[in-house]
Amino acid sequence: MIDLRKQSRLFAAAAVLALAACQSPKPEFSGNPLFQDPLTADPCALVYNDTMYLFTGSDEIPPGEDGFRMTKWYAFSSPDMAHWTNQGVKLTVDDFDWASHNAFAGHVVENHGKFWWYVPMVLKDTTAITHEGFGIGVAVADHPLGPYKDALGGPIICDTTQNAIVLNIDPAVYVDDDGQVYMYWGSWNEARYVKLKENMIETDGPVQTVDAKNFFEAPWIHKKGDTYYFSYAAHYPSTTEYSSSKSITGPWEYQGVINDTIANSPTNHQAIISFKGQDYIFYHNADTPTGGPFRRSVCVDSLNYDANGKILKVARTKTGVPAVR
Predict the structure, then answer these.
(1) Buried-most residue among 50, 61, 224, 283 (CB within 10 A)?
(2) Residues 29, 82 contacting (CB under 8 angstroms)
(3) Within a domain: residue 256?
(4) pTM here?
């Protein structure tokens, strides 16, 4: 004989499960590029108080024209990687009395309870220009969103710095576990690093040459476990490749390609960071309707490692990454 009461309970349970499945929210994704407007490039990311902060350059050249026109930097924030707020322009070339133009890729780092935004620009003082004329300066604030002010009144690194390079751009600053601060930078196949003093605005010792296979520009340092990862743009048009070491100063052992070349964007500039138990890579492409080599847009995708700690090549997506709680 059929147990009608048991059968009724089973039907009711099945109905509840079906209803729950219908009502379960679909995963929310960031989408790529993250923003259609403004045009953004050269990402840097920082986590503070359970929020992801994204700092970018701004591609301002009109459609159909060539060359980098960049005068300012933006900040964005997200609590979950899928929903982003444009916090507006937080720093401009005009905030530095010594700078004239070319607001290229910057880097924000937290230290001593403050936020330090290292940025390269061309100097106004032509007597200090012997190569491309870029200097790396720094602004400071009490919060990731500012307000920022010039912390030094001049560049930390410029053409006349001993052992500087032809194109002193793309700073990447890392505070090591012992509190020592290192600033990497480089372009045109040359990379450098220098220690910074505790005040974050002065060098501490000589500028050192970095030996990393295929390096072109866009250095970034991150650490996972006891391994330091040194990622960078390689070749031109650029892939993103990386080397690793047990020391932040190397020697750097080459590991391979993380991100392939990007259609219609010969530059490739990454930021790698962990947030709420997930690993991410920010980069830019040229996938807006009027995008191009000088009209780029920041994206984000998941970053994965194999069992031996080797970074797997990025699977770039249109959907981006799902929301994390």
Answers:
(1) 283
(2) yes
(3) yes
(4) 0.92
